[in-house]
Design goal:
Radius of gyration: 32 Å
Largest sheet: 8 strands, antiparallel
Number of domains: 4
Helix content: 40-55%
Shape: elongated
Distance between the termini: 75 Å
Bound molecules: adenosine-5'-triphosphate, potassium ion, magnesium ion
Length: 690
């Protein structure tokens, strides 16, 4: 069998150096075209600041044309109009570049969605009777046979069989993973390849809404919605636009007091340089780039809001089996109660597992055969299977003359009324202290012994939990397993806290309680019993190896099935929030210099004393105004790489972070335009343009 731990290695598929998008010529060309398409006012209205800029650009263009037609001075309004249009174009370009990176990934995913022909089973109980059927025509509920070498035609649940599957098409990771019926690794994804053995799969996805389809829509940004934070910032920016509009209009009265009223072109230039075009132009690119950075670490986020929430997460809950451990729990020992032969225990354990479709159940049958040559008998007539459930924490078989149960020790004791002899209790304790899961086996009202199920902690997890702790995040393991096993695994994995013997409802209640205390909660899980908790958590990170239910309940899927990836999610979330804050600060701080550049120019005629404000000693009023507009446009392009890459995040205190960013982006935002406008003014002068 392939080593599943291979799939823990972070994948490098689809990853490239940050900012490399800006060096990709084809991508830039396509983005430029897309930027032009985005000039359509109908779509631009979603961005109030840039929409205002476009309206003002149109107005100044009309004025320039009118001046040219009537023989007036049209050069200055024309130059301003050109740079105002470029301002709008740079903003739409930023968004187009951010989207373009996802589109490239979508194209490679589309190639994975090849047209396969499925083997649809005609009868559920007969694998030899099948009919070819195009994958696209498969409906939910239909059964298909997938054999070694076949592509899995659509998403589904494995109902029979164990196979290794290469999921590289989706995850970029070529080490095969195990897919099997019954347990937490039963979900299969359309477009992935069965490399050995066979599976019978019940289709769960309707045509056109498979995981791959949704993934494509997501990376293309088709499903993207503004987050509540983005909407709030948009409203703030729109408010500032209105305030500056009022301020600029009232200037007309002031300036006309004892001189010439300023021209509409000059007022337009003043308005656009003062409204927050920088952050307005980069806001959506910042959000898209954040989702894209997640994708590069192989995490698929279906909600931008979850990415933002991740930036502020305080607690991470994880289930044990399949999340902290590999989840391939295998029977590894029989421990009979005093006076019971080991073979009698093994026979009872096998009977109790006859109808148990979980990997644990199958491993017990295999172990009984390997250790004692016990062949699993056919299901006797009149037998009733008691399937495993996370609520009862046991499973078993009722025969007309005997009842067999196996499961969590306390659960079996309660259900059968059987007493646990002290020697057995000691054996159970030893198993659990070693980090294995003890299952008690009972026949009617008597305990026959225990089975030890071994599971392995995913490698490297301890260091990663330590890193989470340094980021101020508390890790809590919530598991259905018993206290001792939970404590042993918790100690080995290095989590901060552990909640054992938890039913799905208790996992859910635990999250609600933390949220009620005002904490932001992340949950990582893989099982159907984790689904309610994954849905309730602010960040629900489902393992790609998990069940369909878990993957649908969460708002992120980790294609590498590594719960400690939350580190990356948190960093990217923080980075997103910091980048947005930094560029907003920068954008608003920029206004100071523009004020000093444009106001003296406007009032030059009315109030010559105001020349004292012309700190930059700009060549002429016209040159000052044009230089400010050019700077205002160019700064958007200059900041695109930062918006895409994100401001670097270092784990340090919030106060230190705020201080550093205020200094860098606040003070930088005040000073940069003084320098920039002066340089542009000089250049315009040297080129003889003004
Ligand atoms: N096939 C089975 N038959 C009987 N009992 C089982 C079986 N599988 C698991 N159990 C018992 O039920 C308990 C709860 O199982 P459940 O799957 O809810 O939680 P878990 O997988 O152990 O933990 P986690 O919630 O961390 O994944 C297990 O700890 C084990 O004692
Ligand atoms: K501006
Ligand atoms: Mg589980």
């Amino acid at each position: 069998m392939p080593d599943i731990s291979d799939s823990l290695q972070p994948s490098t598929a689809g990853r490239s150096l940050p900012g490399s998008a800006l060096r990709d010529r084809g991508l830039l060309g396509r983005a430029a075209l897309e930027a032009l398409r985005k000039l359509n006012p109908h779509s631009l209205i979603r961005n109030p600041v840039i929409f205002t800029t476009e309206a003002v650009s149109a107005l100044v263009t009309a004025l320039a044309i009118e001046a040219a037609a009537t023989g007036g001075a049209w050069g200055f309004p024309a130059a301003i109009a050109v740079w105002l249009w470029l301002t709008v174009l740079f903003a739409t370009f930023a968004e187009a570049v951010a989207e373009g990176r996802g589109r490239a990934r979508a194209e490679s995913l589309r190639r994975a969605r090849t047209e396969t022909v499925a083997k649809r089973l005609l009868r559920p109980d007969d694998r030899s009777l099948w009919q070819p059927r195009p994958a696209a025509a498969l409906r939910p509920g239909e059964l298909v046979l997938v054999e070694a070498g076949d592509l899995i035609p659509s998403d589904g649940e494995v109902v029979e069989g164990v196979a290794s599957v290469n999921e590289a098409a989706v995850t970029g990771e070529s080490a095969p993973v195990i897919r099997e019926s019954g347990g937490d690794r039963s979900a299969v994804t359309g477009g992935t390849l069965v490399v050995s053995d066979w599976l019978v799969v019940r289709i769960t996805a309707a045509p056109g809404s498979t995981f791959l389809d949704r993934m494509i829509a997501l990376v293309e940004g088709a499903a993207r919605q503004k987050t509540p934070n983005e909407i709030a910032l948009d409203i703030l920016l729109a408010g500032m636009t209105i305030i500056f509009l009022i301020a600029v209009v009232t200037l007309v009265g002031l300036a006309s007091w004892n001189g010439q009223p300023p021209s509409v072109t000059v007022l337009a230039a003043l308005l656009i340089t003062l409204i927050p075009t920088t952050i307005g132009g980069l806001l959506s690119a910042i959000g898209i780039a954040g989702m894209d950075r997640l994708l590069r670490v192989n995490i698929l986020a279906t909600s931008g809001r979850a990415v933002e929430a991740a930036g502020d997460v305080d607690v991470l809950l994880l289930d044990k089996t399949g999340t902290i451990t590999l989840g391939n729990r295998q029977a590894a020992g029989f421990h009979p109660a005093p006076g019971i032969a080991e073979r009698a225990l093994a026979e009872a354990a096998a009977l109790a597992s006859l109808g148990d479709e979980t990997p644990e159940g199958r491993s017990i049958l295999a172990f009984a055969r390997a250790q004692h040559g016990i062949a699993a008998p056919a299901l006797p007539p009149g037998a009733r299977i008691v399937p495993f459930s996370a609520e009862t924490r046991l499973s078993g078989l009722d025969l007309p003359d005997a009842r067999y149960r196996k499961g969590a020790v306390d659960a079996v004791a309660r259900a059968t009324g059987a007493a646990t002899p002290p020697a057995l209790a000691q054996a159970v304790e030893r198993i659990a202290r070693a980090g294995a899961t003890p299952l008690a086996v009972a026949k009617d009202g008597a305990m026959l012994g225990a089975i030890a199920l071994k599971d392995i902690v995913k490698p490297g997890i301890r260091e990663r939990f330590a890193a989470l702790r340094r980021m101020g995040i508390r890790t809590v393991m919530v598991t259905g397993d018993n206290r001792l096993t939970a404590a042993a695994i918790a100690a080995e994995a290095g989590v901060d806290d552990v909640l054992a013997e938890a039913t799905p409802e208790e996992k859910l209640r635990h999250i609600r309680a933390a949220q009620a205390e005002g904490r932001l909660v992340a949950m990582a899980g893989d099982g159907t019993n984790d689904a309610p908790a994954l849905a309730q958590a602010d960040v629900g990170l489902a393992m790609q190896t998990g069940t369909q239910a878990a993957r649908e309940a969460g708002n992120m899927v980790d294609l590498d099935s590594d719960p400690t990836k939350l580190i990356e999610v948190v960093e990217i979330g923080k980075q997103l929030l910091i980048t947005r804050g930094a560029l907003t600060t920068f954008s608003i701080a920029n206004d100071v210099a523009k004020y000093f550049a444009i106001l003296p120019a406007i009032f030059a005629a009315s109030y010559p004393e105001l020349q004292a404000l012309n700190l930059m000693r700009l060549t002429s009023p016209e040159s000052a105004i044009l230089a400010a507009v050019i700077f205002n446009a160019l700064i958007i392009v200059a900041l695109v790489p930062l918006a895409l890459r994100g401001v670097r995040y270092r784990p340090e205190g919030a106060a230190a972070l705020l201080r550093r960013n205020l200094l860098l982006y606040g003070l930088g935002g005040i000073l940069a335009p003084f320098l920039g406008i002066k340089l542009i003014d000089l250049a315009l002068h040297l080129l003889g343009i003004v």
